[in-house]
Input
Amino acid sequence: MLIEKPKTRSSGVKPEKRKAQRFPVVVPVEVRWRGPDGENTKEHAQAKQVNAHGGLLEMKTYPDPGSRVELINFLSAEAAQARVLGMRHTREGAVLGLAVELVVPSETFWGVNFQLKRANAELFQLERALRSSGVDPRVLGEYRDAVECLRVIASAVQELQARQLEGLETGEVLRALAVERVRRAAYLLNELAIDLDACQVNGETKGLDGLYRAVQHLHQRLMFSFGHRESRPRLSARTLEL
Output
């Protein structure tokens, strides 16, 4: 059945008491339910804001508040039972979506994007705790860079899934990840140079031989890519393994 937007807030639906922070995602789901006349109904929807207890769905046809529905995640094919809480609106009256509550809370039903966003939020809280504890600034900087890397990857995963679902080209997203690897590599190499100057890295440091070969290999490839064809490396089987 189609539900018109309520004219007032006195719709008989109790205000939602959110049990946990919601995270913005785009998760395509199928909603199945039995209508008032006993007919089976299904509707495509998109989950826009979710947590382990439920979320907000965008869909054209809505089941009645209080009814039981089955949600099927298109990306993972995982199914879950949920209760319909009712429509949610902004203070200005704009529709936010249909609020549903999972019968059994799930940390995995909404997929990897939700898990990454929640982990990112937890890492941010940990960063605040590290700052207040007076941790070494370089260690804090390393932590922040790792969190930023995770944020970029989480965004790329979400974009890849959305593009694959719509049959769109994914090369742009993969190129963006390559840009992030370049940024991350430059950061790490500069940090290692500082460690060398401070004698925290020396000839006895484990893995230094492998790092040297990898940097040498990358240097040769960069020279070739930038037009120095005379410097094109002759790659051995051992080098290719690196």
